[in-house]
Amino acid sequence: MNGQLASKKSVGRAFVRSHGVLAFLCLTLVVGLPANLFATIPAAAKSDPRYGLGYLVVTYYPGVNTNGTGDCRAGIQEALNDAFTNNQVFQNAVSVNGG
To answer: What does the pLDDT look like over 30-45, one tens digit per residue?
Structure first.
């Protein structure tokens, strides 16, 4: 058992040396999260005409108040995460298709 643990540690160290600490942390975070933790863009946000122009309207997310009251950080963060994830999916599709 200790041999397997040592082997996993050396693989992790090799990855960090060749790809950097930030890449290792990102990989660990993404691999460690279950798929159901990745939020999806609300249907109302997708049906907004600005979505077709490349904008994600955060006011469609739960917890985002349009009147300036309350703490909207969680909803805004969720929108940012969705935008980042969907941009990565788009970028991967473009690179696979040779665009």
So the answer is: 444 444 445 589 999 9
CA distance 25 to 34: 16
Integer-rounded Cα Rg, in Å, for the chain is 19
How large is the average pLDDT for residues 62-88?
90
Q: CB within 8 A of 59, min separation 6: which ones?
A: 66
SS3 content of the chain, % helix, strand, coil (to 5): 70, 0, 30
* pLDDT for 21 beyond 90: no
Q: Indicate the SS3 state at residue 11.
A: helix
**What gap in Å lies between CA 65 and CA 59, rounded to an integer?**
7
